Amino acid sequence: GISASLGAVEKGLRYCTIEQDTMGGTVAHYPRGKLVMTAPAILPLIGKTKFGEVRKEELLEFWSDAVDTYDLNIRYQEQILSIVETDTGFLIQSSQRSYRARKVLLTIGRRGTPRTLDVIGEDLAKVAYRLNDAGEFQGKHMLVVGGGDSALEAACSLAEQPGTTVTLSYRGDAFSRARQKNRDRVESMAAAGNLNVLLNSKVNAIDEGSVTITADNDHCRIDNDGVIICAGGILPTGFLGEIGIRVERKFGTR
Description:
With 254 residues, this protein is an alpha/beta fold. The chain contains 5 helices and 17 strands. A 5-stranded parallel beta sheet has the order 10-17-11-12-13, covered by helices on one side. Helix 3 packs parallel to helix 4. The model has no long low-confidence stretch (mean pLDDT 89).
């Protein structure tokens, strides 16, 4: 989205960029100090970026400087509801207003709508779908659900907090989707007794002071003060279909 905005400024176009979240999107909600893997890229007006492995805060500062330097027209906390083709272009309806445009460029990701567990108690205030600051949970009993990098990083960050007990629950039998670096970190912390890992497990219910989990066909209830669900995001296939974009399914995935 930022790259597209820079490109519009470079070409002298009249444009508006709509962002349903805050500046930085998903990255802005990463845990404090998280290392972000990026590849060198050439951005309009800015040129080649040389980031490889960079901390979240540095990347956000870089983007923020670009937005301020080139006075990018980005409207935050606004969601696109519909896009309808007209004789002269498109009519776009957002959660706040209507727009008319000759062209529409979609630069959306897949994490805008987090995937839920659909279990009793998931609507409690102690349930979140991202970890911003592990330090907020010192001395708490925490559950992290998921098997990707976000889940493993969240679990390890929480387990490093003084007095915090952490359980990592994943429905699979191995963390095959995560980077080796994160898998090694989880294995090391589990071996040291700092992290309780439950593979082949499923969360059945969430209560105010506990959670119920089935692991290897055994039911258990553990004390709990907070739940972080890192189960990925829901693909916006419904929205894409409504605006006329065909989505092909291959090998069981979209």
